[in-house]
Specification:
The protein is built from no helices and 20 strands. It has about 290 residues and is mostly beta strands. It has one domain: Beta-galactosidase, Chain A, domain 5, CATH 2.70.98. The strands form five sheets. Strands 5, 6, 7, 8, 11, 12, 14, 15, 19 and 20 form a ten-stranded antiparallel beta sheet that branches. It has a three-stranded antiparallel beta sheet with strand order 1-2-3, with no helix packed on it. A three-stranded antiparallel beta sheet has the order 4-9-18, with no helix packed on it. A hairpin with a 4-residue loop joins strand 6 and strand 7.
Length: about 290
């Protein structure tokens, strides 16, 4: 089956997704003028020494079953079984700047529904996952995370910490090895950790540099991480979670919406501001 390439585009931002045989974001960055589908071949990754004989894709759910040794997008099990699902695309719906991908793992009895929407005016990307259990036995979902790839030149994280009356204190971390993890377990957004981060070229500011930002549309517990994949570009992924649940047959667990934006800044330029208010309220998994 030939890969199906879908391009979501705006005047400032492009998102290019390979939909078959699995869903993978190949490009998320500034608008590409004169883009042709065959140009996507230039983004093919070489197989590094000492690794698997085929390229390990960074799919929308970051699947360990495909050879990824980092943090997977789906963490769960069926009483010790089906803990490493491998999803294959079964249906694609593309309309305007909205993309819906249904992927199945028949052996695990799971379906993954991935929604992507790029706002044509602002260039803000909205994403979420829905995990559906089609097996008679319950499936325990420890975590359901979204994955966004970033280029190698995005080597600096700016996140925020704080306390009462002194929130949103920025701090920066250089990404060279390992990664950065931010987790909130207070049951609300808290003073300490805003559910978002920015990753960009080193030394980026409000006036210059390339910046990719992600904001989880959820004011509760969350875990965000940026990981460096050594010897394997793109090296960084931003992640957002859903808490542990158990899913009976036909039940589903749903991640919260993630809002993401990228921009190239120069003196006098402006970057789109993600708007949370138009979104539907976060939906809790319909689980027992």
């Amino acid at each position: 089956m030939e890969p199906t390439i879908v391009r979501l585009t705006s005047p400032t931002t492009d998102v290019i997704v390979r939909c078959q045989p699995f869903a993978e974001i190949l490009y998320w960055g500034p608008h590409l003028s004169g883009f042709m589908p065959e140009d996507i071949l230039t983004l093919s990754r070489a197989v590094p020494n000492g690794r698997l004989d085929v390229d390990t894709p960074l799919t929308l759910a970051a699947e360990s079953g495909r050879g990824l040794f980092g943090s997977p997008g789906v963490e769960g099990h069926r009483d010790g079984y089906d803990w490493s699902p491998v999803f294959t695309t079964s249906e694609i719906t593309h309309q305007d700047n909205q993309l819906l991908i249904l992927a199945e793992d028949p052996q695990a009895g799971l379906q993954l529904r991935s929604e992507l929407q790029l706002d044509s005016a602002s260039g803000v990307l909205k994403m979420r996952h829905t995990l559906i259990n089609h097996h008679a036995a319950r499936y325990w979902v420890n975590r359901l995370a979204l994955t966004l790839p970033l280029p190698e030149r995005a080597g600096e994280v700016m996140a925020f910490h704080g306390r009462w009356i002194r929130e949103f204190q920025p701090h920066r971390v250089t990404l060279e090895h390992g990664g950065y993890l931010q987790e909130n377990r207070r049951g609300r957004s808290s003073h300490e950790y805003f559910p978002g981060m920015m990753v960009g070229s080193r030394g980026f500011s409000e006036q210059q540099g390339e910046v990719w930002g992600i904001h989880l549309g959820w004011s509760g517990n969350h875990r965000l991480r940026a990981d460096v994949k050594n010897r394997w570009p793109p090296p960084v992924a931003g992640r957002g979670p859903v808490s542990a649940r158990r899913a009976g047959a036909g039940r589903r667990g749903q991640s919260k919406y993630a809002l993401a934006v990228c921009c190239q800044l120069s003196h006098g330029s402006e970057c789109a501001q993600p708007a949370v208010s138009p979104l539907c309220p976060p939906e809790y998994p319909a689980l027992p």
